[in-house]
Amino acid sequence: xxxxxxxxxxxxxxxxxxxxxxxxxxxxxxxxxxxxxxxxxxxxxxxxxxxxxxxxxxxxxxxxxxxxxxxxxxxxxxxxxxxxxxxxxxxxxxxxxxxxxxxxxxxxxxxxxxxxxxxxxxxxxxxxxxxxxxxxxxxxxxxxxxxxxxxxxxxxxxxxxxxxxxxxxxxxxxxxxxxxxxxxxxxxxxxxxxxxxxxxxxxxxxxxxxxxxxxxxxxxxxxxxxxxxxxxxxxxxxxxxxxxxxxxxxxxxxxxxxxxxxxxxxxxxxxxxxxxxxxxxxxxxxxxxxxxxxxxxxxxxxxxxxxxxxxxxxxxxxxxxxxxxxxxxxxxxxxxxxxxxxxxxxxxxxxxxxxxxxxxxx
Length: 362
Prior knowledge:
Number of helices: 12
Radius of gyration: 27 Å
CATH superfamily of the largest domain: Vaccinia Virus protein VP39
Order of helices and strands: HEHEHEHEEHEHEHEHHEEEEHHEEH
Low-confidence stretches: 43-52
CATH class of the largest domain: Alpha Beta
């Protein structure tokens, strides 16, 4: 099957069958929201005796755990075949299934990067009061092998989180309001429709504009809607025709971002500058003293660009680490010198910036 023919479409068919027909190494990211095998059993009632609409669909029912495991192995094997060598896969689940999925993922050779907890800010209460309120789901983020050069837009995720490193607990409400697709009678079209905010983070973190994102359990099309909005391509596979119809209508109404809006923060790799360049340009001299910002640790600059303190000698990085009893240190940011004109401490990184500007205009 030609990947170009089904790109940005929803295929109404079985996911394992279609994935086995796709070319090997053809998709950049997979987001999978497989059956959870919840096996809820008896009817669940609210305190007012109204019925809770849980997940009772045929697609979430399996004869036993062995049958579920076998199905999981089949679809993950098919997913691994179509995923590019440097691609990544996200699988979401609950306590009913995610531990079994993780075990099978590892058995198939996937390398787990993170487990991300989706902490639901508005979870369904535990009406019986017999357990903790189940307020989260878990996403496993994995790659095909430990050496894969996968996409992780670290700077973009940090910017999204007010310039603070994004953690593995994401507080996002469950899907509700206008975003929730409904049937004509007002009931939910799909019992486990995921919020667009969740997929927004997934795709911003692990994909690039123009990437192909595969969702083998497409449901009502959250992955496709967000992918289209963010300038990514999608392939959806869903065997329930009612979900497919809802997904197609939903995605057709989505307006993609402009090319400018779809851009995101990327940390530019700056050219390396040896500390010796500072001496060669006469910005500092052998014998000058460096200190940390608190003036507690001191080191003398030597003629070859190394430095020496009371407890260590070596590069600005090695000695900075030794003074802090740390495993590593960015010496450019740790060490300061005293400006001879005003007596103020200046970070030596300011000298590196001047050299980069001279050499590269940056």
